Amino acid sequence: MIYLGIDCGTQSTKTIALDAGSGRIVASAAQSYEVLPGLPPGHLEQNPSMWAQAVDTTIRQVLEALGARRAEVRGIGISGQQHGFVALDRDAQVIRPAKLWCDTSTAGECDLIRTHFGGAQAVIEKVGMDMLPGFTAPKILWLKRNEPENFARLATVLLPHDYLNFYLTGHLQMEYGDASGTALMDVRTRTWAQDVLDFIDPALAEKMPALGSSREPAGTLLPELAKRWNLPAGVVISAGGGDNMMGAIGTGNVAPGRVTASLGTSGTIYAYSEKPVIDPGGEVAGFCDSTDAWLPLVCTMNVTVATEAARNLFGWSHAQLDEAIRGVPPGADGLLFLPYLQGERTPNLPRGTGVFHGLTTRTMTPAHMARATMEGVTLGLAYGLHRMRTLGISPTEIRLTGGGSKSAVWRQICADVFGCRVVTLAEAEGAALGAAIEALAAAETNKSVNEWSNELVQVNPNDTTMPTEPADCDYFGAMEKQVSLTAALFERGFL
What we know:
- It contains 17 helices and 23 strands.
- The protein is an alpha/beta fold.
- The chain folds into 2 domains: 2-243, Nucleotidyltransferase, domain 5 (2-Layer Sandwich); 252-424 and 465-495, Nucleotidyltransferase, domain 5, CATH 3.30.420.40.
- Strands 1, 2, 3, 5, 13, 14 and 15 form a 7-stranded mixed sheet that branches. A 6-stranded mixed sheet has the order 18-19-17-16-22-23, with helices on both faces.
- A hairpin with a 4-residue loop joins strand 2 (12-19) and strand 3.
- Helix 2 crosses helix 4, helix 11 (304-314) packs antiparallel against helix 13 and helix 13 (366-390) packs across helix 17 (475-491).
- The longest helix has 25 residues, at 366-390.
- It is globular, with a radius of gyration of 22 Å.
């Protein structure tokens, strides 16, 4: 049988076809798009209709590639960019473009929510995490404060993957995993935080969809879509989830000890946990996952966006970038980079900028600056892993995904910085694969999604990278220096 996995991201939508018998991806397609142009700094938005159109286009392309095997399609799963705010009116029509996870224009609303409840610690006690600009809750308050006429029309709050589930099934609902990223849900009890809802608006609770288990399907494919795509009746649409939740399934991160680190435009590092993980400092997001467990996660906004900026600055190919970095010793001879080129989420610096510290006549070279950039973004993720360790997560293996995982020199930096074995995966599209595996588990219920993930996700044995012994660099000390320098500059108003 065939299961489709769809990953709707900020830059593109990808659809894959998973052959459940062989575990192979037998067809794939992608469509790129951009954020809306001309918005003020910090505002990042997209039209949800663009996502639906990309889903339609990529499904058609995949089904065409499948040929007669399209009759074997039994399920579809959706992975969506987290936190985006899709506002629907009473007729289930989109009111305005969706504010995205990377939109930082809601910092003021975060401050209002924190102040009302008595500070960040009080918010953490209510929902399990701090109130950050990327989350959905401040986006809703932003709409109320800045576009009251649109807020008056608001009847339903959806997340991007929820909107695509609605497009496929006609049903409005949310599941625990993606809903945990709204900062409107108590992640410990998996129930809406009524106090937070009421503060944003007394009627907001009525505008939230039904909340349920990530293991329960969203429904079946609408007959008109089945007819349009020439698919059999009754195709199951799984609950779907946020891209990190689906990425966990698609990287086999469904058991204690496994940690996924994504080296994409932005970066994430997250782990599986059988109990809630609440960070009193608010830096680790205590999300729920899409297996009805938990997914402690740290997100940084600058990973390959920073390394690509360095590569383009010096006019190098990716191979030349790696070669230059190999020529500089670990630690870049003391050159340290604070990689906040487009603000930052962890640490919470929505207006942050990048900083090179330690420039000398020796280190002011393209190769040193390139190595410091790659190390700097990795140290940012390592800080997140360090916070997880203090909260009880014990990593035994880091599973790398994203474009950066293709670089052997970066994999070695990751192993040395994280202090842990690093592996890559046979299939690069972790989120789309996770969505397809979830659809498989929703249709073929003889195994759990965890069991299907363990069976189908394969690592690349030839890419296993171990930490250098003895260590060539005190990366933990470098991480502490990065944290201290960031704090000192922030306190003086320079970040």
